[in-house]
Design goal:
This protein is of the alpha+beta class. The protein has 2 domains: 122 residues, Nucleic acid-binding proteins (OB fold (Dihydrolipoamide Acetyltransferase, E2P), Beta Barrel); 34 residues. Helix content is 22%, strand content 43%. The strands form 2 sheets. It has a 5-stranded mixed barrel. Strands 4-5 form a two-stranded antiparallel ribbon. Strand 4 and strand 5 form a beta hairpin. The longest helix is centred in the C-terminal third of the chain and has 25 residues. It is extended, with a radius of gyration of 23 Å. The chain starts with a strand and ends in a 6-residue tail after the last helix. The model has no long low-confidence stretch (mean pLDDT 83).
């Protein structure tokens, strides 16, 4: 697999999904400009290249929470190619579904470019394993309290 770094603008809101085993996966498209300066110093535009980007786990969740259409991103990842059968397209001669090949970037890191804009970064506080357990226990207690209140309100259990 080849490493690649791209800088471009996200073309639509990131779409996050979860696999059957609960892994987050996000996908989006990145438009990379092919603008260049000619020998006279004038800027020339070529058609942009579009890349499909996929990210997994915590990176996927962070992208879905923080990135929006139009944001200028720097994406570093692995260039991958996969082949699949597309039932929407049929070979006229054989009647078989057509095989299609796509090239994608499996993102390893994504950052917002600050060349033309500014950002504010909020870092999550570092937690110890015990603090993380305590936070989880507190969240579970809060959920249980809400569920209890709802059950009382709906008359399912006595107050």
């Amino acid at each position: 697999m080849s490493k690649i770094t791209l800088t471009g603008n996200i073309t639509h809101e990131p779409e996050i999904h979860y696999t059957s085993n609960g892994q987050a996966v996000v996908s989006f498209r990145l438009a990379v400009s092919n603008r260049y300066q000619d020998s006279s110093g004038s800027w020339q535009e070529r058609e942009a290249d579009y890349y499909s980007i996929t990210a997994w786990r915590k990176l996927a969740e962070n992208i879905a929470a923080c990135v929006s259409k139009g944001d200028r991103l720097i994406v570093t990842g692995k260039l991958t190619t996969r082949t699949f059968t597309d039932d929407r397209f049929v070979n006229r001669e054989t009647g078989d579904a057509m095989k299609r090949t796509v090239t994608e970037v499996q993102a390893e890191d994504v950052a917002v470019s600050v060349r033309y804009s500014s950002i504010r970064v909020d870092l999550a506080p570092a937690t110890t394993e015990q603090e993380a357990r305590d936070q989880a226990d507190e969240q579970i207690r809060a959920w249980n309290a809400k569920a209890h209140e709802r059950a009382v309100r709906e008359g399912k259990i006595p107050a």
